[in-house]
């Protein structure tokens, strides 16, 4: 068999990465249960899409099969990869704000964003199907649909980024079991931004550009698509493994009422007006964070250490 071309090598890397990611994501879904899966199911969906797309590309490369069906499969699975990542973050934020004690974002906001995500996903699927068509008019329509979908994805990202930052600023009012979800969401934002910008640029790039949708440079795709997705997937998987499973009442296993022992251990002075069970606890001022504390590596480290 002849050596793989760069496109085939990238497809092989995707299969190698998303195979284990699928298994771990599936475990996380069952660990949290369907009732509290928080969008983990979308990680499973993304892994399946990438495995199918990578396998189609590998088949095309190794079997010299460039039939429309194979190319269409590879293109569509590539086009719809943005939505699952955004929907996972949406699930994180919805859980946190649903359980936050003060000033949480309303459910109607998340429902609206979810509907927009589904709309953009449908546009991406139809656009990808039309672009794979041999008809010039269908390809033009597909290109337009991809452009519309990419703009919606960008708007969704901006909305989720704003909610993530707002939620992080109110982290002290969130349930301690949700802190890792907040940290993971914030840590993923820079990588998600690059991934979304890639989608937008590819949708609007002109013929001859390294971003042109039908002939994207493989190294650009490897960095702005695969690598960024991989970072986000790893961050989300770590959050899924470290986040406590919710009980039937929607609380984390390590939470006791509105008080978490982990929170009492390292968050500054604590005053209690009542030493009895279920008493209201007031917390002292927490250390002010600097901009340096918001770097992704620090947030990931804090999430792993439970701070």
From TrEMBL:
Residue ranges occupied by any DUF7702 domain in the UniProt entry: 7-243
Keywords attached to this entry: Membrane, Transmembrane, Transmembrane helix
Region (Disordered), start-end ranges: 248-289
Transmembrane domains' residue ranges: 12-30, 39-59, 74-96, 108-128, 148-169, 181-206, 218-242
Biased composition, class Basic and acidic residues, residue ranges: 260-274
Name of the molecule in the record: DUF7702 domain-containing protein
Source organism per UniProt: Extremus antarcticus
């Amino acid at each position: 068999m002849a050596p793989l071309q760069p496109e085939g090598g990238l497809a092989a890397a995707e299969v190698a990465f998303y195979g284990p990611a699928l298994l771990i994501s599936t475990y996380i879904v069952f660990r949290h249960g369907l009732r509290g899966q928080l969008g983990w199911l979308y990680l499973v969906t993304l892994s399946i899409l990438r495995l199918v797309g990578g396998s189609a590309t590998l088949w095309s490369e190794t079997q010299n099969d460039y039939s429309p069906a194979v190319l269409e499969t590879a293109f569509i699975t590539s086009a719809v990869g943005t939505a699952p990542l955004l929907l996972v973050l949406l699930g994180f934020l919805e859980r946190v704000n649903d359980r936050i004690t003060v000033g949480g974002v309303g459910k109607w906001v998340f429902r609206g964003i979810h509907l927009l995500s589904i709309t953009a996903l449908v546009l991406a699927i139809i656009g990808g199907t039309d672009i794979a068509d041999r008809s010039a008019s269908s390809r033009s329509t597909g290109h337009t649909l991809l452009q519309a979908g990419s703009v919606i994805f960008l708007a969704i990202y901006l909305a989720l980024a704003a909610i993530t930052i707002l939620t992080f600023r109110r982290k002290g009012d969130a349930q301690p079991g949700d802190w890792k979800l907040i940290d993971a969401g914030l840590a993923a934002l820079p990588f998600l931004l690059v991934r979304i910008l890639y989608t937008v640029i590819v949708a609007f790039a002109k013929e001859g550009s390294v971003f042109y949708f039908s002939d994207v440079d493989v190294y650009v795709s490897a960095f702005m698509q695969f690598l960024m997705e991989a970072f986000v997937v790893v961050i989300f998987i770590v959050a899924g493994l470290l986040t406590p499973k919710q009980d039937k009442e929607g609380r984390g296993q390590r939470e006791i009422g509105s008080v978490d022992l982990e929170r009492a251990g390292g968050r500054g002075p604590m005053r209690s007006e009542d030493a009895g069970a279920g008493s209201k606890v007031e917390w002292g001022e927490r250390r002010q964070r600097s901009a340096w504390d918001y770097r992704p590596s620090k947030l990931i480290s804090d999430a792993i250490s439970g701070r």
